[in-house]
Amino acid sequence: MPEQLNQRVEACFRQAELFFKRPFQRPVVSIKLRGQKAGVAHLHENLLRFNPQLYRENAEDFLKQTVPHEVAHLVAHQLFGDRIAPHGEEWQLIMRGVYELTPHRCHSYAVKRRQVIRYIYKCPCADSDFPFSAQRHGLVGRGRRYLCRRCRQTLVFSGETRVQ
């Protein structure tokens, strides 16, 4: 895990402890998040997950904005409990008061969509294609059957794939 990320998480917790004059339990920190989210705070597991690709591509802003954003979720949860809105006034108070940051709900990082392969299935009764995800295609390989809604015959893999 990038050391700067760990150091920033620790610094955010120390800042919150100085502000609120109380200790906060430290989370497990992971950089195994994929997709469009820059970070996720799992409140009940006391876990922070960060997106390594978005961190690499936006390191400065990520450390300045994303890390405090996620730490603020855990701090708010430890202070106020379960019955608060994720980006509600308690979280906003921490973002403004502790970290002196504007509380943005979402990041504005450019996210590259990954290409997805679709496996084309067909039915004897229809001229249309049925594009299956890799997961569904794998289930077919393990014996699962999918039926045409019109004629109830088993859909059959055509051998074609498409990249979307």
How would you explain this protein's 3D organization?
- By secondary structure, this protein is an alpha+beta fold.
- It has two domains: 3-98, Metalloproteases ("zincins"), catalytic domain (Zincin-like, 2-Layer Sandwich), CATH 3.30.2010; 117-163, no CATH class.
- The protein is built from five helices and six strands; from the N terminus they run H-E-E-E-H-H-H-E-E-H-E.
- It has a three-stranded mixed beta sheet with strand order 1-3-2. Strands 5-4-6 form a three-stranded antiparallel beta sheet.
- The longest helix is centred in the middle third of the chain and has 22 residues, at 59-80.
- The protein starts with a helix and ends with a strand.
- The model has no long low-confidence stretch (mean pLDDT 94).
- It is found in: Cytoplasm.
